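Lecture notes, unit on protein representations.

Consider one protein chain, 442 amino acids long.
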Amino acid sequence: MSTVLDQKTLFSAIPTIKFEGLESDNPMAFRWYDENRVVAGKPMKEWLRFAGAYWHSFNGSGADPFGEPTHLFPWDSEGDAITRAKAKMDAAFEFLTKLGLPYYCFHDVDVVDYTNDVADNERRLQTMVEYAKQKQQETGLKLLWGTANLFSHRRYMNGAATNPDFHVLAHGAAQVKAAIDATIELGGENYVFWGGREGYMTLLNTNMQREQENFARFLHTCKDYARRNGFRGTFFIEPKPMEPTKHQYDYDAATVIGFLRQYDLLGDFKLNLEVNHATLAGHTFQHELQVAADAGLLGSIDANRGDYQNGWDTDQFPNDIYELTEAMLVILEAGGLQGGGINFDAKIRRNSTDVQDLFHAHIGGMDIFARALITADNILQKSDYKQIRQQRYASFDAGAGAAFRRGELTLEQLRDYAAEHGEPQIISGRQEYLENLINRYI
């Protein structure tokens, strides 16, 4: 972001972003995202529930391990911590409002700089919560979810809830308490736990069972506190396999579901899934969505993509229509996200330094999701996509196959069926046809 622009004029040259349709060549307009268009019985804005990520969009400096910041925000040099935080929030709400985003998400330290003093941090965050309440009332924006950053401070180098030092765990708990209080006060609809360093670097110094038991106890303690204080929303766990920790306990959707089931957390927790994290786990995003949907735990998603030539979390804005169409097929067939929405946990590139770049990134991301939603709905409504999958499993819908599903066949009876009916026919999975079908509707 250019330092030439003053805070008060940062976005003044950017118009309110509106839907103009496919005939528009205006780069500052939506071509696909028409929030009131009804798709599969609901307005588009209800299926998608877009949210801005406070951290990347208004805290991300563009710095990397080899270079200094390239995104220089005017509010970074304005007075004390609260003055800077208010200037940043003014800009954030102006941006979100001009873009028409209905929600935002934040970590505690995104909103205001923290010190090492617990009480001072709580006072700072509470000051900004009061300011955010005013901004929400003025704009109509809502908080999709809040969370605490338990991974950046050096005290968390060995994790927070899984840290071998109880003193560190207590500091993590203090941060979560304040973040939950802020989420409740701002009417936040959900609360997210991302275990960025909840894992280990080597098993040589790690008691894995104790760490996971402590992690579960920590989550129960936080959940119980939130419920006692009136929080009625959903808690989300966000899986990620590695980076910054070598092995993180929330490795992927299946691992998290097993953890929640083992430690009796299924009743309060669902999953917040990220595209780039699925990639790092060796899965497709569609796979992770389907695993969560099949378990009834598809809560929310972070929208981004990775660079398939890089093995780390690049958090680029989404632009793959084929990938997102497959994702929206899963989401539509699951009936939508349960409590959450689509948070743009993505950052503009280090060399994207114009104010307009942040708008172009979000416009493109919102349009590609809208296009994927429309395409997926057309596939489900107008093609033989569902029938092909249904027919592929038809042998389990009647006769001996249905009896097996009801648990009525013994192993001996299965053996006798195989012997009596001989070698099964080879039946095509029709993969190429289905891939072409998606392309045809795109």
